[in-house]
Amino acid sequence: MVIGEYTSKLGEKKRLSIPKKFRDEMGGDLIITRGYEKSLVLTNKKMWEKVAGEVTKGSFIDKNIRETSRFLVGSASEIQTDKLGRFVVPTGLLEYANLKKEIVFIGLVNWVEVWAKEMWVKKLEYLDKNSENIAEELTKMNKTE
């Protein structure tokens, strides 16, 4: 299970080093793609198959299926890491997430989000202010199911 928060720095050659704990948990066959709120999603192939399956389940004629597939699947890349867990971030993803120097990895059980530190700080501020309301909305959703 990938959990926790780790910081890293983007190297000169646009390389990131995946925290060792996450490397140990996820293994070597990794996928990186766009995430929501200008983050990136990093996962292993097994979990990726579940995510991609959920995204593409349904009819091609459904606009939301097409749009979500374009967003998540269309930007996905298989990545190769070296012995230290470093990989080159694809240019399009680097630009999308506005990754510059300081990077935060957030383990979310089945996947890892990769954030530019300044974006993650803003997201944490939002979560701090709104966590109670978010929890209430989730409770309402669970009662209706």
The tally of helices reads 5
* Sheet of most strands: 6 strands, antiparallel
Task: Write the element-wise H/E pattern from the N-terminal end onward.
Answer: EEHEEHHEEHEEH
- What distance lies between the first and last C-alpha atoms, to the nearest angstrom? 27 Å
CATH structural fold name: Chemotaxis protein chec
Radius of gyration: 16 Å
SS strand fraction? 25-35%
Total discrete domains:
1
Shape: globular
Which CATH-level-2 architecture? Answer: 3-Layer(aba) Sandwich
Note down, in words, how this protein is organized.
- The protein is of the alpha+beta class.
- The protein has one domain: Chemotaxis protein chec (3-Layer(aba) Sandwich), CATH 3.40.1550.
- Helices cover 44% and strands 28% of the residues.
- The protein has five helices and eight strands.
- It has helices spanning 20-26, 45-56, 63-73, 91-96, 117-144; strands at 2-9, 15-17, 30-34, 40-44, 77-79, 86-88, 102-109, 112-116.
- It has a six-stranded antiparallel beta sheet.
- It starts with a strand and ends with a helix.
- The mean pLDDT is 90.
